[in-house]
Amino acid sequence: MGPPLTRREFLLGVLWLGPRTPGEIRELAKVYSDRNTALFTPEDVEKAVDHFLVAGLARINQDGMLVLERKSLHPNLRQAAEHIAEILSKTLT
Question: Where on the tree of life does the source sit, at the highest rank (predicted)?
Fold first, then answer.
């Protein structure tokens, strides 16, 4: 496995896998932190979520789930998201 993901990389990959509630994101961050050297606190996750919302990379839908704005992502960011999601799908299962 490569170096640990940053909190923003982690969130990008998690959201590429599908919409999540803030609680689900925090729980996945805990699982990831338990299996890697990266330690994501709930505050780290909240900062990443805030960054994505402010930057227009994600939105909160009517069900309260954080949704990645895939159509607005730069092609390089889309490619990175796909790669990170692949890593996470192996790590989190």
Answer: Archaea
**Burial (CB count within 10 angstroms: exposed 0-12, middle 13-18, buried 19+), residue 3:** exposed
Partner residues linked to 68 by β-bridges: 58
Write down all domains in the chain, each with its CATH number in brackets: 7-88 (1.10.10)
Cβ-count burial of 92 within 10 angstroms (0-12 exposed, 13-18 middle, 19+ buried)? middle
- Whether pTM exceeds 0.85: yes
Could you give the CA distance from residue 84 to residue 10 in angstroms, rounded to a whole number? Answer: 7
Cα angle, residue 44 at apex, residues 72 and 8 outer, rounded to 5°: 30
What is the rounded CA–CA span in Å between residue 23 and residue 8? 16
